[in-house]
Amino acid sequence: MAGAPTDRIPLHTILLPVIGVAAWLAIGKAGLGPVALLLAVVLLGSVLAAVHHAEVVALRVGEPFGTLVLAVAVTVIEAGLIISLMLGGDPNPGLMRDSVHAAVMLVLHGLAGACIVVASWRHRNAEFRVEGANSFLAVLIPMATLVLIAPNHVVSVPGPYLSPVQLGFVSVVCLALYAAFLFIQTNWHREFFLPVGGVAGHGHARPSARIALACFGLMCMALLSVVMLAKALAPALQEGVQAVGAPIAIVGVIVAAIVLMPESAAAIRAAAQNRLQSSINLALGSAVACIGLTVPLVAAVSFWIGQPLQLGITAGQTVLLALSFAVAIITYGTGRTNLLCGIVHLVLAASYIFSVFAP
């Protein structure tokens, strides 16, 4: 992982996350204006800091654990953000659905497409392990179907809701699938998720345990800073969206994109270094973790506070999701990809964004 020094921690990667958390505590929510611009700058700095610390941790623990650390950390904090909005804001039964759907589509096409384009542009034909990519899809497709599509077709309660028993069952299934996937990824078939040709050193020595542990803590703080600043900037985003006449639903997409920025930066950097397998581990891994962890956590909170969850997506979104998985199966079915595949994924990402503006 070029670019991540392993013998020291740059000062700015320590200060920026601390400043971000302190700014959120001091300012809270910000409307349009200079304060929002300042918070946005600190947010971008926190993203870069999170990527740096994640790369150092990844060098210490190796693949696929390195990419797994960032994916799980971001997902847990994203779930925390959704739960905090559920507990402190106006009732929004579709909040989890919109967040999960946006994260899956942005990761499956926006991030994956960008990584494929970058890798193909710099290295023409990028390679990855079919077994690993298919393992991600084998878990992601049923989880997304159970959470986003099946609620529209149940008969126990009117869709797009699930009964408490059904929601509990879906939550357990998602958690079980994710646990099984983690066992496969980190133990049983770890080789499926290693770079083609083995693990490369990328020109850096393995960092010490002390440096790696410090970077792990700083990475968590940086991720917390990103999420908290994204929450603080939400009013400014809403004001900006309303000012240009865009649908309010786009705010959820923007917030999801902000939360995914650390993973996106790390994945695109890996793709530029011809490590497409690491990019896939980050991109698809975050989508799997998003459903596997977020749904059970948010469902538990919904049971606790008695707030129902609206889960099913619209018919048009269902068609686009089905098309997305069909294209993903084709893309990841050969172990090699090219510029055309990346462009197709980016077009589907643009189609999803367009459907938010014009449902």
Automatic annotation (TrEMBL):
Residues 37-186, 216-356 form the Sodium/calcium exchanger membrane region domain. The keyword Transmembrane applies. It comes from Neoroseomonas eburnea. The chain crosses the membrane at residues 9-27, 33-53, 65-88, 100-121, 133-155, 161-184, 211-234, 240-261, 282-305, 311-332, 339-358. PANTHER family: SODIUM-POTASSIUM/PROTON ANTIPORTER CHAA (PTHR37958), SODIUM-POTASSIUM_PROTON ANTIPORTER CHAA (PTHR37958:SF1). It is a multi-pass membrane protein. InterPro entries: Alkaline_pH_Ca-Antiporter, NaCa_Exmemb. Its main location: membrane. This is Ionic transporter y4hA. It holds the Pfam family Na_Ca_ex. The keyword Cell wall biogenesis/degradation does not apply. Keywords: Membrane, Transmembrane, Transmembrane helix. It comes from the Bacteria. GO terms for molecular function: potassium:proton antiporter activity; sodium:proton antiporter activity. It is found in: Membrane. One of its GO terms (cellular component) is plasma membrane.
